[in-house]
Every structure is written in structure tokens, then in C-alpha cells.
Amino acid sequence: MIRLSNVQKTYPARRGSDEHTALRGIDLDIAAGEIVGVIGRSGAGKSTLIRCINLLETPTSGSVIVDGTDVTKLSNRDLPLFRRQLGMVFQHFNLLSSRTVYDNIALPLELAGASKAEIAAAVDPLLPLVGLEEKRDRYPAELSGGQKQRVGIARALSSSPKVLLCDEVTSALDPETTRQILNLLKDINKRLGLTMVVITHEMAVVKALCDRVAVMDGGVIVEEGLVDGIFANPVHDTTKSLLADEFVEFRAGQDSAQSRDQSSGQEG
Amino acid sequence: MFSTLAPILLQATGETLYMVAAALALGTSMGLPLGVLLATSGRGELFEALWFQRIFGPIVNATRSVPFIILAVAIIPFTRFVVGTSIGTSAAIVPLTVAAIPFIARIIEGAIREVDSGLIEAAQAMGARPVQVVTKVLLPEALPGIIHGLTLTAVTLIGYSAMVGAVGAGGLGDLGIRYGYQRFRPDVMAAVVITLIVVVQAVQSSGDWMARKADKRNI
Ligand SMILES: Nc1ncnc2c1ncn2[C@@H]1O[C@H](COP(=O)(O)OP(=O)(O)OP(=O)(O)O)[C@@H](O)[C@H]1O
Ligand SMILES: [Mg+2]
């Protein structure tokens, strides 16, 4: 379904910062219907990797094949059409505050030029799937974090994508809500047979959700395999230390969320 | 006395509102696209075009740094070219519009820059084309800020319109100067001041109300 071959990404130098190579030759194969986790410490290049799949970042070199097409070769005209085949869910939800739950979920279809009837036919069944029938006409400001993320998930599903990209989708949620969201994603994968790429820095997320996992460090994949195997027999130091983190999961989540906020502040 | 004052006061208020409304509408029709482009043409942004910023940024700043009364006089040839005369209510719309455009452009730019860049990214991930990012995400999300800004513009234009009144454009400013000052009619002056206060209050209150209606961030 997705094949990354020798993908490199170098962010160009800007005022006040040197150029930075975030991905140094990534090879990753993801089969249809599979849930693949990508885990690593802050700055390992996980977000860059997932953003190279839907071309929010353009790889500096290498190829990204999605469903048989090398998407790095797509023209600016065709890129939006390709992106409509992928859904993306974000850590901070990224919902439009000016739209109700229903209208947020409808947005991808609206962008694709769907009619009102087509939109209703797609959105109405999603509301019960993510458990938000009662919040249909509410605004994001009226929802809890978990509910917002359910909207984010429903929105990513509304255009019937083949692939769901999830970047730290539970990192802003408490443990109980995290569990619910992970169950929802698992359920969606089973029901719809969706391929999923799940970025996280928590082994617990990988354990709960993924079939396979790739461990990243310094822009490369240092270890990769079936989740059970990696858990039973971690080889690389990064993997071992991430496994050890599980015991201090809560603190780790907080710290990396903080450092991420700081770094995004500098970039903006 | 009131019966003689009321009709001219009413007419002057109508002229003021006409000048301000026309300048606001024309200024928005040009200031809005300009503001959107100023907010989205930077490096790595939606419609990256650094030349646009380099040319229009300074023009906008220059226009905004000229005091309005000087601007109004300086562009008299242009006003004459557009309207055929430089005197009267319709002629006053030209300098008011010219002053409003950069004002509105900066306000729109600021309101759009306030929108979380995560939303732009989310829209692009959904397959939004650049124009759709503007129409479906940036403008709706910036709407409360834009309404606030346009309200501020309207109030500022009411003040400016009184200034052009002083150079023969009609409206409340004109009335205040001609009757209140030159013919020394303090009652007219007082009526003009009170009317201006009422008009500004009404504009501000309805602007605030609309902005609140549009703002779904704190419900
Ligand atoms: N737009 C950008 N411009 C320049 N450098 C960037 C940019 N985005 C990311 N980087 C750098 O690339 C490296 C990898 O970033 P990335 O966001 O992929 O890490 P991550 O593994 O997702 O980390 P986190 O867990 O904190 O989200 C970091 O060193 C980061 O500073
Ligand atoms: Mg990240």
C-alpha cells in the first residue's frame, strides 16, 4: 500500500538555523489493512516521516509509492486529489472553531465538491461510529479533548480514505481517553480495513494498537518488526530505553509535549 | 428652532453614512484581497510571492503614514479624474476609499495571521487547493477579527468624513464647521457632536454584536 524507498529530508537553512537533515534514508513497507507504528524520541523525525507520506513535506530524495503511484512526482494540480485518498489525524485536533461538529466532518467532502446529499450520506453514519450523535450541532469549543479527537477521526474518515495517518493523536489526552480513542481506531481498522500509520512516543500506544512497529532515532529506522517480537526481544538501545519508559509513561508524555510546544514556538 | 435644525441634521447624517458606507464597501472590495495576499505570500506560505510583499508592503505603509487631510488634498487630481469634480459628497468617497484600503488590508492580514497554522495544514492534508484554504478556512476562522477590524475602520472613516466635510464634502463635519463654527451657532455644533457620538456608538455596538455572533471560540 505504502512504500518508502531511501527517503531523505533536509530542511533548508533559515535565518538563525543551519540546514537540518531530519530523515536519512528511510525504507518502510506498509501493507494494506495493516497498522504500523512509528516510535521514537522527540526530534527523531517521526512527524517528518508521516508528513512525507501525504507530501505536506516534500522529500529531498527517494520515492514514496502510495497505491502504485510515486506521489513525489505528482503535479501541484494532482496533489490535492491524491491527498483526498488519505485521512490525517493530528495531536492538537486542528478543528475549525467556526464550524459545528457536523460541518467539520463534512469539510473534506465539501472541498471535493460533494453535494449536500452526498455529504449527509457520508457524515450521518460517522457520527454514531465515533459516538457523537448528540454533539452533531455543537462547536469544538463545547467539546472535551476526547470528543474533539473523535471529530478529528470522523473528519479524516469522511472522504472514505484508504489510509489513515495519525500523528501523536493521543498525546494531548488523559490515559482513560487515550484508551477509548485507541479502541476506536482499532475498531475502525477492523470494520473498514483501513491501513494506518501511527506516530507515537509511547510504547503503550504501539502495544495497544499496532501490528508492526518501526523504531526511529536520528532520522533512521533503527529497528523494525512485529510488535510482539520487538517487545519480547528488543535489540537496539533506543528500543530498550523506550520500553523502560513505559513505567514513567505519564511524565515522559508531559515532557515531550512541552519540548514540542517550545520548538514549534521557535519555528512559527 | 428644532424644527429647522432637524431636517439639515438628518440630511447631513445621511450624507455622512453614505460616504462612510461607500468607502467601507469599496475599501473592503480592494483591501480584502490585498490583505489576504499580504498574509499568504510570505516564504513557504500558501501563495508564496516575495515580490508582492516587497512592493505592496511599503505602499501600504506609505499610504497609512500620510495624515488623512493631507492625503485628501494630495490626491485631488486623481479624485477629479475619477468623479469629475473634487467637491461634494461623492468626491469625498475617493480619498476616504484610498485611506480605507491599506487600513483594511492590514486588518485583514492581521486577522488571518492569527489563524492557527495547524488549520492550514489540516486543510491541505484534506486536499484543499490554496484558494479553498482561503475561502473555507482562513476567512471563516478570521471572521470575528475581520468584523472587529471593519468596525474600527468604520469609526475611523466617520472621523475622516468629518474632516473632508471641512473642505466642502457635506455631511456632519461640514454642517458643524459651516453653521456651528463660521456662523457661530453653538446649538448646531452641539447637535452635530451629539449626533456623531450616537452614530459612532451605534456602529461600534452593532459591530461588537456581529463579531460576538460570529465568534464560536468561547461559547
Ligand atoms: N519545518 C522545519 N524546518 C526546519 N527543521 C524542522 C522542521 N520541522 C522539523 N524540523 C526538525 O527536524 C527534526 C525532526 O523533526 P520531527 O518533527 O520530524 O520530529 P518528531 O520525531 O516528530 O518529534 P516530536 O516527537 O517532538 O514531534 C527536528 O530536529 C526538528 O527540529
Ligand atoms: Mg512530531
From TrEMBL, chain A:
Keyword Metal-binding: no
Keywords for this protein: Amino-acid transport, ATP-binding, Cell membrane, Membrane, Nucleotide-binding, Translocase, Transport
Listed GO biological process terms: amino acid transport
Pfam families recorded: ABC_tran
One of the record's GO molecular function terms: ATP binding
PROSITE patterns assigned: ABC_TRANSPORTER_1 (PS00211), ABC_TRANSPORTER_2 (PS50893)
Domain ABC transporter: 2-243
One term under GO cellular component: plasma membrane
InterPro entries: AAA+_ATPase, ABC_transporter-like_ATP-bd, ABC_transporter-like_CS, MetN_ABC, MetN_ABC_transporter-like, P-loop_NTPase
Recorded family membership: Belongs to the ABC transporter superfamily.
UniProt function note: Part of the ABC transporter FtsEX involved in cellular division. Important for assembly or stability of the septal ring.
Full protein name: Cell division ATP-binding protein FtsE
TrEMBL record, chain B:
Membrane-spanning ranges: 17-39, 51-76, 82-105, 146-168, 188-207
Principal place of residence: membrane
Keyword Aminoacyl-tRNA synthetase assigned: no
Domain of life: Bacteria
Annotated coiled-coil segments of the chain: none
Swiss-Prot/TrEMBL keywords: Cell membrane, Membrane, Transmembrane, Transmembrane helix, Transport
InterPro entries: AA_ABC_Transporter_Permease (IPR051322), MetI-like (IPR000515), MetI-like_sf (IPR035906)
GO cellular component: plasma membrane
Membrane topology, record value: Multi-pass membrane protein
NCBIfam families assigned: PRK10782.1
The family this protein is said to belong to: Belongs to the binding-protein-dependent transport system permease family. CysTW subfamily.
Protein name in the entry: ABC transporter permease
Biological source species: Thalassospira povalilytica
